[in-house]
C-alpha cells in the first residue's frame, strides 16, 4: 500500500469513528436505534439503515431523491434521521418506533412530490426512504406484477418489456417517478383513454398499518384497499407493494409531434382539439402544450400536439384527416415503434436510446419548479383562447400541458376509487414553470406567475369545487395546521370531490390518532 493510500484510509476511518461517536451522543438516534433493535433480527446491524446528519452519507442519501431544487437549499428543514429499510420488517419497526420516540414519519418513494411533502416538514421528523424496496415480479400466466413501492415507473416498464413486447401498464411519462406515490395518487399516462388510470389496475396490496402489522387486501378490508388506490396512501399507512394487472398493447404503436404558432392557425387547432381529443378513438391519446415563445424577436404562442396511437401510422392519419383536418397530420409526421420505445419518446430520450435507459434513476438534474392543476369541463371559446394567449405572453414563463380525457375514463364511476375526475371532464391542465437560478426573488417571480395564470383561468375551469389532481400537489389550495376536518375539506374536496367524506371515514377507522400525516393529508374525525 502506498503512503497516500494509507493516509487516505486513515482519514476515512477517523471520519467514520467521529461519525459513529457523534451518532452515539445523539439521544434521538440512540432511542430510535434501541427501539428498532427490539423489532429487527439481531443478526442485522440496525445502524446500517439509519442516517443521522453526522453520517458522512446523510447528505447524499437525502439529496438522491429530491426532484425539486426548491427543497434542496440550506434553509430547507431536514429530517433528524433517514431510515432506509432493506426488508418489510424494517418498515414495521420504523412505524412502531417513530411513534414511541415521538417523531413524525415522512414516507418517500421516488421524491417527485411537487411540494416536497414526502421529505420536508416544519416539525421534527424522520424520513422513511423506500428506495431499497424495489423488487418487481412479473407473472405472465395471469398477466400481473407485484411491484414494491420503492421501484420506479421506468423499472416497471422495463421489467414488463423483458417478459413481453405486447404488454404494458397505464402509468406516467417520467421514468424516475416512484411507484408508491404515483399509484397511491391514482397515476395516469398515455394509455389513460384506452385503459384508465394506474390505480384502476391495482388488484392487491401490502400495507404496514399504524400498529406495524403487514396487511394484504383481505386483511386490510375493502374500505382501506379503496382508499390507497388514489386517495394518497401516506394518510393511511406505508404501502410496501402493489399487485397490478398488465394491459395489452399492439406490437406497433405510432407517435407524432406537431407544432404551430399563432400565425399558422394555432388558435384554430387549440379550439378544435378541445372537442376532438376527448371524443375521438380511445386508441389515441394526445397532449396539447401551450407555451409563450419568441420568434423573430416577437413574443407569440406555440401550440404543440403530441400523440400516441395504438396502431400504425396509416390508421391515425386516416382518423385525424377525418376528425381533425385542421391539425394537418401526415405520414411523414409520424413514427412507428414498439410501445417500450414510445415510453422513451415521451420521456424525451434521443431516438435509438435502448430500453435499459429506463433503469437509470438519475436521468435529469432537478430544476426549481412549481406546478398547479385544473380540469376543463366546457371548451374554452376562441375569444377565451385569444385572451389566454395575451395573458400567457404577458406573464412570460408559465406553460400549460392539456391532457385529453374521455374514452375509458368516461366509463368508470367516479366513486369506484377515490379519484373522482371521470365523466364530464374534457381535459386536465398542468401549469408548469421551471427555473434554474436560486434565490427568493426569482422564486417569487415564477411562482407568482403560476398563481396569476391560475387565477385568470378561474373563468374557464371546473367550479364548486374547483378540481385539482393529487399527484400535482399544490399547497396553494390549502394546508392542514391542526388536521381538522374543515381544514382538510378545503384541499380534500378539490382533490377528491364527493369522495373526501369516505376517505375521512377510512382515516378515522384505521389511524384515529393521525400518526400518518402531512400538510395535505386526510384528517380523522374528532370525537
Keywords:
five-stranded antiparallel beta sheet, alpha+beta, 3 domains, Uridine Diphospho-n-acetylenolpyruvylglucosamine Reductase, domain 3, Vanillyl-alcohol Oxidase, Chain A, domain 3, seven-stranded antiparallel beta sheet, Uridine Diphospho-n-acetylenolpyruvylglucosamine Reductase, domain 2
Task: Give the arrangement of secondary structure elements.
Blueprint (H helix, E strand, L loop, with lengths): L2 H22 L2 H13 L10 E3 L5 H6 L17 E3 L4 H14 L2 E5 L16 E5 L6 E4 L4 E5 L4 H11 L3 E2 L10 H6 L7 H4 L6 E7 L5 E2 L1 H4 L1 H6 L10 E8 L1 E2 L4 E9 L4 H11 L7 E12 L2 E12 L3 H11 L10 E4 L1 H8 L21 E9 L5 H14 L3 E6 L22 E9 L4 H17 L28 H12 L3 H11 L17
Parallel strand pairs: 2-4, 3-4
Antiparallel strand pairs: 1-2, 5-6, 6-10, 7-11, 8-9, 8-10, 12-14, 12-15, 13-14, 13-17, 16-18, 17-18
Helix pairs in contact: 2-4, 13-14
In short:
With 527 residues, this protein is α+β, with helices and mostly antiparallel strands.
Could you explain the architecture of this structure?
The structure is a single chain. Helix 2 (27-39) crosses helix 4 and helix 13 (382-395) runs antiparallel to helix 14. The strands form 4 sheets. Strands 15-12-14-13-17-18-16 form a 7-stranded antiparallel sheet. The protein has a 5-stranded antiparallel sheet with strand order 5-6-10-8-9. Strands 1-2-4-3 form a 4-stranded mixed sheet. Strand 8 (202-208) and strand 9 (214-215) form a beta hairpin. Mean pLDDT is 95; it is low at 4-22. The protein is built from 16 helices and 18 strands. The chain has 3 domains: 17-129, Uridine Diphospho-n-acetylenolpyruvylglucosamine Reductase, domain 2 (2-Layer Sandwich); 136-249 and 473-510, 2-Layer Sandwich (Uridine Diphospho-n-acetylenolpyruvylglucosamine Reductase, domain 3); 253-337 and 367-460, Vanillyl-alcohol Oxidase, Chain A, domain 3 (3-Layer(aba) Sandwich). It has 527 residues and is α+β, with helices and mostly antiparallel strands. GO terms for molecular function: FAD binding; oxidoreductase activity. Belongs to the oxygen-dependent FAD-linked oxidoreductase family. Its main location: secreted.
Amino acid at each position: 500500500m502506498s503512503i497516500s493510500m494509507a493516509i487516505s484510509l486513515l482519514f476515512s476511518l477517523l471520519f467514520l469513528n467521529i461519525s459513529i461517536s457523534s451518532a452515539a451522543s445523539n439521544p434521538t438516534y440512540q432511542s430510535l436505534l434501541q427501539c428498532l433493535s427490539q423489532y429487527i433480527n439481531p443478526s442485522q446491524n440496525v445502524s446500517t439503515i439509519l442516517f443521522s446528519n453526522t453520517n458522512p452519507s446523510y447528505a447524499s442519501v437525502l439529496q438522491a431523491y429530491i426532484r425539486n431544487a426548491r427543497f434542496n437549499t440550506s434553509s430547507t428543514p431536514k429530517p433528524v434521521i433517514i431510515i432506509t429499510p432493506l426488508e418489510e420488517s424494517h418498515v414495521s419497526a420504523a412505524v412502531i418506533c417513530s411513534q414511541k420516540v415521538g417523531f413524525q414519519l415522512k414516507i418517500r418513494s421516488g421524491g417527485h412530490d411537487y411540494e416536497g411533502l414526502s421529505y420536508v416538514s416544519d416539525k421534527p421528523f424522520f424520513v422513511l426512504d423506500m428506495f431499497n424496496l424495489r423488487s418487481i415480479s412479473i407473472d405472465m400466466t395471469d398477466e400481473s406484477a407485484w411491484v414494491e413501492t420503492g421501484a420506479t415507473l421506468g423499472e416497471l416498464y422495463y421489467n414488463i418489456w423483458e417478459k413481453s413486447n405486447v404488454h404494458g401498464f397505464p402509468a406516467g411519462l417520467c421514468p424516475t417517478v416512484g411507484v408508491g406515490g404515483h399509484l397511491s395518487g391514482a397515476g395516469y399516462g398515455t394509455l389513460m383513454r384506452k385503459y384508465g388510470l394506474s390505480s384502476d389496475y391495482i388488484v392487491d396490496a401490502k400495507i404496514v398499518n399504524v400498529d406495524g402489522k403487514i396487511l394484504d387486501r383481505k386483511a386490510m378490508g375493502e374500505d382501506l384497499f379503496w382508499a390507497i388506490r388514489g386517495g394518497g396512501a401516506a394518510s393511511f399507512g406505508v404501502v410496501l407493494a402493489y399487485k397490478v394487472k398488465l394491459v395489452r398493447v399492439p406490437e406497433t404503436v405510432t407517435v407524432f409531434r406537431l407544432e404551430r404558432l399563432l400565425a399558422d392557425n394555432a388558435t384554430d387547432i387549440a379550439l378544435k382539439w378541445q372537442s376532438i381529443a376527448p371524443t375521438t378513438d380511445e386508441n389515441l391519446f394526445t397532449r396539447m402544450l401551450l407555451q409563450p415563445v419568441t420568434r423573430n424577436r416577437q413574443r407569440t404562442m406555440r401550440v404543440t400536439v403530441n400523440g400516441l396511437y395504438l396502431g400504425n401510422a396509416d390508421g391515425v392519419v386516416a382518423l385525424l384527416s377525418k376528425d381533425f383536418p385542421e391539425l394537418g397530420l401526415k405520414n411523414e409526421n409520424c413514427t412507428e415503434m414498439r410501445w417500450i420505445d414510445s415510453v422513451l419518446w415521451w420521456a424525451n430520450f434521443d431516438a435509438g436510446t435502448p430500453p435499459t435507459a429506463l433503469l437509470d434513476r438519475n436521468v435529469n438534474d432537478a430544476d426549481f419548479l412549481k406546478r398547479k392543476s385544473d380540469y376543463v369541463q366546457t371548451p374554452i371559446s376562441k375569444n377565451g383562447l385569444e385572451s389566454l394567449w395575451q395573458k400567457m405572453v404577458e406573464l412570460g414563463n408559465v406553460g400549460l400541458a392539456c391532457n385529453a380525457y374521455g374514452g375509458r375514463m368516461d366509463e368508470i364511476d367516479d366513486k369506484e376509487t377515490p379519484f373522482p375526475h371521470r365523466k364530464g371532464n374534457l381535459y386536465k391542465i398542468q401549469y408548469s414553470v421551471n427555473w434554474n437560478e436560486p434565490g427568493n426573488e426569482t422564486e417569487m417571480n415564477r411562482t407568482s406567475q403560476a398563481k396569476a395564470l391560475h387565477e385568470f383561468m378561474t373563468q374557464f375551469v371546473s367550479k364548486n369545487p374547483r378540481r385539482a389532481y393529487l399527484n400535482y400537489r399544490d399547497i396553494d389550495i390549502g394546508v392542514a395546521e391542526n388536521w381538522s376536518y374543515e381544514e382538510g375539506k378545503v384541499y380534500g374536496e378539490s382533490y377528491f370531490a364527493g369522495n373526501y367524506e369516505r376517505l375521512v371515514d377510512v382515516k378515522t377507522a384505521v389511524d384515529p390518532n393521525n400518526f400518518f400525516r402531512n400538510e395535505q393529508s386526510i384528517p380523522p374525525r374528532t370525537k
